[in-house]
Amino acid sequence: MEKEGFSTQAVHAGEAREKAGNAVTTPIFQTSTYTFRDSHELIEYMEGHVEREEYGRYGNPTQRVVERKLATLDGGEAALLFSTGMCAITTTLLAMLGRGGHLVLTEEGYRRTRQFCRTLLQRLGIDYTFVETGNYEALAAAIRPATRLIFSESPTNPHLRIMDLDRLVDIGRKHNVKIAIDSTFATPYNQRPLDFGIDLVFHSATKYLGGHNDLMAGVVVGSRGLVAAIRDMQAMLGGITDPHTAYLLMRGMKTLGIRMRKQNENGMAVARFLE
Ligand SMILES: *Cc1c(COP(=O)(O)O)cnc(C)c1O
Fold this sequence. Notes:
Blueprint: H1 6-12, H2 39-46, H3 61-74, E1 78-82, H4 85-96, E2 102-106, H5 111-123, E3 127-131, H6 136-142, E4 147-153, H7 165-175, E5 178-182, H8 187-190, H9 193-196, E6 200-204, E7 218-222, H10 224-237, H11 243-253, H12 256-274
Parallel strand pairs: 2-3, 2-4, 4-5, 5-6
Antiparallel strand pairs: 1-7, 6-7
Helix pairs in contact: 1-3, 3-11, 4-5, 4-10
The site of pyridoxal-5'-phosphate has 14 residues, from α4.
């Protein structure tokens, strides 16, 4: 654990100490676009000398705070927010796979992720192989020269099967293939796949991260380079979170630690009773 505890990070990480209007909380920046002082500032931005916002599809200050918070909680360099968990997964797969590329997935997982492979990826000439969840020999054997990514949930939805992340990372490194884990059911409180050497982590923020059944969002966390490439694809496809939703997610995440602690306790009590 870092020197700050999980809940301290959940509350403060990614937030500026001094905020607009001396507000205690990060405000909702309800704006679709941004002004430049003059042509010089615009040129500086276009040439990549200054980091700032330009247009709502490319970023929003409320969204950035949530992204930095999520990157900190998951131990990643960068995070990118999306309109839904599905949008995070599909945009990332489209960013990482091209015609002739190949994807390996474990077969137990979110139905729409599997459907996306069988329909859209297929139509774009991207091949995929489903392997039995937990069969690491089959997983390694499914890798081809064209394989760009291994994708698995852990825990899986709905049967809560757990992948051996150390073994996955060994297989990925040996074959020089990146690995993505949909970690929705664990949250960064219970599992940080990046600490094991996994390359990308997904969450449906609609579930535990938001935590109040009042928003839909998704996120991918990983290295700066990988996330930048995915951000570029999002800029084209447009599946962003609106500032209001980003704010609700930020608010929900502040209590993630205490909610998860309680839910872990409750889960254990049910398991003991059933045992
Ligand atoms: C819910 C869920 C998704 C999809 O997320 P949405 O926010 O509903 O689009 C993806 N993966 C897992 C494991 C989920 O539980």
